[in-house]
Amino acid sequence: MVGLGTCSGGNDNGTGIQMAQAVGAAVRHMSAGQVGIAAVPGLMVRGMVVNSHGQRFINEDVYPGLLGQAALFKHDLKVWVIVDEQAFEEVPEVERWGTQPTHMAETLTELEMLTGMPPGSLESTVTQYNSHAENGEDPYFHKSPTWLRPLQPPFAAIDVQKGFVPPEGGDPGSSAAVFSLGGLEVDIDGRVIDHDGRPIPGLFAAGRSTSGLHSWGYVSGTSLGDGTFFGRRAGRVAATTSDR
């Protein structure tokens, strides 16, 4: 759908969903995906994330997957991480995953030119951010005061679209990796539902092949909950169902 790599243990390739669809199964939330972007959380939270217009669009200390969803689905990955020298150096080198600034500049005006952002856009964003950060506040996105401080020159911009450089070197990897948060429609006991809202006899599903509990609100571990809790329910019902 988005032409990016997948987050998967290797076998989560959608075949389970396709097999069930072949016998009439309905699906839900197939437009939703979990997104891991090629940006170091430690850098994002110490600086800011802006779109191609130089505007912040999210709280940088949220769960990184939510930031990735916003970056991909709302801004087509055309986003930048803006940091200063202190923010960059505070993250240990081994934790930067080879990330290097795409552009560096002594002034925000110069950084706007290098990144192609509209004149005055990034300068306005940083000026407002710094003004509130001096008071430990972020009235627009409510970042934790722990991470708030005014950004000072020199500045750096990291292009998220360029991807990570692997620790062992080589070419940068994909700028983002995605897995579907949608899947088969099921009832609370794991029965797969058809397009008329009726259970398909003998067909059960649980875990990431189903639409599950979350779509846009996924956090790490949710798939385990979907798989274990609803998988247990499905197994119990399947064991006592005559049409299995």
UniProtKB/TrEMBL annotation:
Q: Which domain of life is it from?
A: Bacteria
State the SUPFAM superfamilies in the record: FAD/NAD(P)-binding domain, Succinate dehydrogenase/fumarate reductase flavoprotein, catalytic domain
Which InterPro entries does this UniProt record tie to the protein? FAD-dep_OxRdtase_2_FAD-bd (IPR003953), FAD-oxidoreductase_2 (IPR050315), FAD/NAD-bd_sf (IPR036188), Succ_DH/fumarate_Rdtase_cat_sf (IPR027477)
Q: Where is the FAD-dependent oxidoreductase 2 FAD-binding domain?
A: 13-224
Q: Does the keyword Oxidoreductase apply?
A: yes
What cofactor is this protein dependent on? FAD
Q: Which UniProt keywords apply?
A: FAD, Flavoprotein, Oxidoreductase
Q: Record's Pfam families?
A: FAD_binding_2
Q: Which PANTHER family match?
A: 3-OXOSTEROID 1-DEHYDROGENASE, FUMARATE REDUCTASE
**Name the record gives this protein:** FAD-binding protein
Organism the protein comes from: Gordonia sesuvii
